[in-house]
Design brief:
GO terms for molecular function: glycosyltransferase activity. By secondary structure, the protein is α+β, with helices and mostly antiparallel strands. 41% of the residues lie in helices and 9% in strands. It is elongated, with a radius of gyration of 35 Å.
Length: 730
């Protein structure tokens, strides 16, 4: 409701505005009876004629990032540290304190206080002391808005604080127009949300947190009086950055003013004055390198979210626009990060390798059916701090080791890529019963030179011939990770179909050499099924999550919801999903993927696995997955999934893939990822995998298929893992 103003009050405002204008003209020695009259006639403006920022405030606000519980603060982004709160969430004693300190007649005047202005004018004319402003809260609000309005030029913002009569006259006009249309409480609320309280805190919400570590609804009398006293000279009075004694003296002044206005009694004032300065300074984090103390591992997820944000048109037409929206738009972002899953992932990553180890275990966890990223962990601090001499990226780095991008291409994931060959084969009409007498070595049609070749051809071998060789179907070929079976199967299906399958499930080729091979020569990429292309734990986990979701691929998503400062939901939090596999194909692949983890397929065809401890860790809960070892064990990988979560971890040296992590670490990687999955599904109902149809299981007793003779018309050398890395490095 607008302020109720008497005709006399309006007349005083008009006359005073005219008087100020006349004085300004006299001082400037300018003729101006006509101009003086114009100033008087226009002293009272109209609300509609006000600058847009005064009608609809566009002041910058801090954006908040929370974990998926909507309560755990990850970090904030801001250029200006402020957040709007409604008047009902500001302690009544704080409202009384600011009125008593800055504008005792706030509820009586109509925007400009004739008495206050006249008193200030007389004091300034007499001189001999500090200049008196005579500004009401409404006039101060006008000044604060105009000097921070992001839609105005720098010169216009600077003009809002010019020490001129013309500027004062403009404030009177604007303040009068505001009071004609807005209620006193609305003006007070707007003022408290924009006033500067020192130490980087704009608005009462930021100030309350900055000085006392609490929301403004919980402010005490002594705390409110202290904060109210700061606005006159925030930098000088700030008890954090300025003079504590001056702050206490100003607090006493405010308390005395509150007694004078009848807000409190003398006894209450005396008690508050006796209270010591009990500060609890809380610095608001700003950006991904300033995440909550003790949780710098959250920075990798934060950085991934920021990159996602900068790609969303909903936040602006350009990347700079979107960056500015994040830093000043006042958004509330509930992310997909699960604090418990993240804590387990970080614990497990650092259990395998410490922070100071040159090797790393990046781990990612994804929710099937939504693509929401639950965790991103690695044994590194997300920090810009310097590293010891000779240590490139440890213990501190901000490189995206888990998600990839920038200078991070990813890591070879070994036999986990056999999944894409199996899916391509199932989609082509082959069944899980497709049998092949897998030899210890398989001559292929690809020309190759050097040790390990067979008559000038690439000749992949099984890692453990005694356990792997012989008649295999997809179940035990996958369970025992038989190289020669899957290289043969890929040749039957077509290498290009396998590469395309990986891309459909979200595998991104960030390395230039990989991208070029996939684009120009995929049909001849014979070693692709053995996982020689670089990938990331996030891509790999999401690819397997697609199978867990029975063929529904969802773009990785780091948010649950985004709410604008005005309370409206921004339509960016919904999963972006599409079907990329027939559900029965996905079910069949899952059926075979239960073999590696020590479980059994629907018709009992599993007979050995490379990660059987997973079944024990998950306590028999339905789970599937696959191990992967790259050439010479330069990396070790495990990816597992249930219907509710998929997680992947890759042990590697991010700075030197030629540094072989060794086969001994594989068991630790398996254990680490399995425990992340166990945490993610804890408390959730056990959900079984759907069995595939007979059309895709086939007859387990069909005749053995024999190896094909290599085509003498050879094509391109698939290259070794090490050589491919050297190629990427030029």
């Amino acid at each position: 409701m607008a302020a109720s103003r008497s005709p006399l009050s309006r007349l005083f405002t008009v006359l005073l505005a005219g008087l100020l204008a006349g004085l300004a003209l006299a001082v400037a020695a300018l003729p101006g009876n006509l101009l003086l009259g114009f100033a008087a006639r226009t002293a009272i403006g109209t609300y509609a004629a006000l600058p847009a920022a005064l009608r609809t405030p566009a002041t910058p606000q801090r954006s908040y990032l929370y974990a998926n519980d909507g309560k755990t603060l990850i970090t904030t982004f801001y250029d200006v540290n402020r957040t709007d709160v409604p008047l009902a969430e500001i302690a009544p004693v704080m409202r009384q304190a600011i009125v008593s300190a800055e504008d005792r007649r706030f509820y009586e005047h109509g925007g400009a206080d004739p008495r206050g202005l006249f008193r200030a004018l007389v004091a300034d004319v007499k001189g001999g002391g500090t200049a008196q402003g005579g500004s009401t809260l409404t006039m101060q609000y006008v000044r604060n808005v105009l000097k921070t309005d992001p839609t105005r030029s720098a010169a216009e913002r600077a003009a809002a604080t010019d020490p001129t009569m013309g500027r004062k006259l403009q404030e009177i006009r604007y303040a009068s127009a505001l009071e004609e249309s807005l209620g006193k409480d609305e003006i007070l609320n707007r003022y408290l949300n924009i006033a500067y309280f020192g130490s980087g805190a704009y608005g009462i919400a930021a100030a309350s947190q900055r000085y006392f570590g609490k929301p403004p609804a919980q402010l005490t009398l002594a705390e409110s009086a202290l904060l109210a006293g700061l606005v006159q000279s925030p930098d000088a009075y700030s008890p954090i950055d300025g003079d504590k004694n001056a702050a206490l003296a100003r607090r006493s002044y405010v308390l005395d003013s509150m007694v004078a206005t009848g807000s409190i009694t003398g006894a209450q004032a005396a008690q508050a004055k006796a209270e010591p300065l009990a500060l609890h300074p809380t610095a608001q984090p700003n950006g991904c390198t300033a995440v909550a103390q003790g949780h710098d591992d959250w920075g990798y997820f934060c950085d991934y979210l920021r990159q996602w944000w900068l790609a969303q048109p909903a936040f602006g037409a350009t990347v700079p626009d979107r960056e500015q929206a994040l830093r000043s738009g006042g958004y509330t972002v509930v992310t997909s990060l699960d604090p418990q899953v993240q804590a387990t992932a970080q614990q497990q990553a650092t259990k395998v390798y410490g922070y100071d180890n040159k090797r790393a275990l990046p781990i990612a966890a994804v929710q099937p059916g939504t693509g929401r990223v639950l965790a991103m962990a690695v044994n590194r601090h997300y920090s810009l701090a310097d590293n010891p001499a000779g240590q490139a990226n440890y213990p501190n780095t901000v490189n995206p080791l888990i998600s990839g991008g920038s200078s991070v291409d990813g890591y070879q994931a070994g036999s986990t890529f056999k999944l894409f060959t199996m899916l391509a084969a199932l989609e082509s009409g082959r069944t899980l019963s497709t049998g092949f007498d897998a030899p210890a070595k398989l001559p292929t049609r690809y020309a190759a030179e050097g040790p390990g070749t067979c008559d000038g051809h690439w000749c992949p071998a099984n890692a453990n011939p005694e356990w792997m060789d012989g008649y295999r179907m997809m179940w035990d070929g996958f369970g025992r990770s038989v190289n020669t079976y899957f290289v043969w199967l890929a040749e039957q299906v077509g290498q290009d179909k396998v590469v395309q399958m990986a891309q459909r499930l979200g595998i991104t080729f960030r390395a230039d050499a990989d991208a070029a091979f996939a684009k120009d020569n995929a049909a001849n990429w014979g070693s692709f099924t053995l996982g020689v292309a670089a990938t990331t734990p996030l891509d790999l986990a999401n690819a397997y999550a697609t199978v867990a979701a029975e063929g529904t691929y969802c773009t990785p998503l780091p948010v649950v919801s985004v709410t604008a400062a005005n309370g409206e939901k921004v339509p960016v939090g919904e999963p972006a999903c599409k079907r990329v596999l027939d559900p029965d194909v996905a079910r069949a692949a899952t059926d075979a993927a239960r073999c590696p983890v020590g479980q059994q397929s629907a018709n009992g065809q599993c007979n050995g696995g490379t990660a059987t401890t997973v079944n024990t860790i998950l306590d028999g809960r339905p789970v599937a997955g696959k191990t992967g070892s790259s050439e010479q064990n330069s990396t070790e990988t495990f990816v597992g999934f249930t219907p509710q979560v998929a997680a992947a971890g890759i042990a590697a040296n991010p700075d030197d893939p030629a540094d072989e992590v060794g086969s001994a670490v594989q068991a630790k990687v398996i254990d680490a990822v399995a425990r992340v999955i166990a945490t993610a599904v804890k408390g959730q109902p056990e959900k079984a995998f759907a069995a595939p149809s007979h059309a895709l299981t086939g007859d387990p007793h069909r005749p053995v298929e024999r190896p094909a003779v290599p085509d003498p018309q050879t094509t391109q050398d698939p290259r070794s893992a090490l050589q491919r890395w050297l190629d990427r490095r030029g």
